[in-house]
């Protein structure tokens, strides 16, 4: 299983799960305000992703999820003060928005599948690399900030 670690870029994972949710289709759901909830989830997800990416660019560290060993700086401020993985939170929110847009019950499985995959194959390996690279500073950061929210 280690062969899969950090090999599939997180946006590809999210897009694949979104495509599977679309293909699965099946019985649908609707509720008052679904369009507004879809917009809110999409706008929030996109905004979080962009803000987190800008924080990485400002610190001149890598945005390449398949190469966490290239990390040059530990980013702990802004959104990273609330979540150690705001880019992945943003992608999860975009997946929530897509699921709401589809209105398909089967699509609801995409979000927990994304979280489980990311925890095992992306975040876990990233955390090992960051702990080795930044030592006590990363340990202190990990102790005070949650992985997701």
Name its key features.
single chain, 149 residues, mainly alpha, 4 helices, globular
Structural class: mainly alpha
Instruction: Report Rg.
Output: 16 Å
Order of helices and strands: HHHH
Number of strands: 0
General shape: globular
Q: What is the mean predicted local confidence, pLDDT? A: 96
β-sheet strand percentage: under 5%
The tally of helices reads 4
How many strands, which pairing sense, and closed or not: the largest β-sheet?
none
User: What is the assembly state of the chains in this entry?
Assistant: single chain
Describe this structure in words.
This protein has helices at residues 10-24, 34-58, 86-102, 110-144. With 149 residues, the chain is mostly helical. Helix 1 (10-24) packs parallel to helix 3 and helix 2 (34-58) packs antiparallel against helix 3 (86-102). The longest helix is centred in the last third of the chain and has 35 residues, at 110-144.
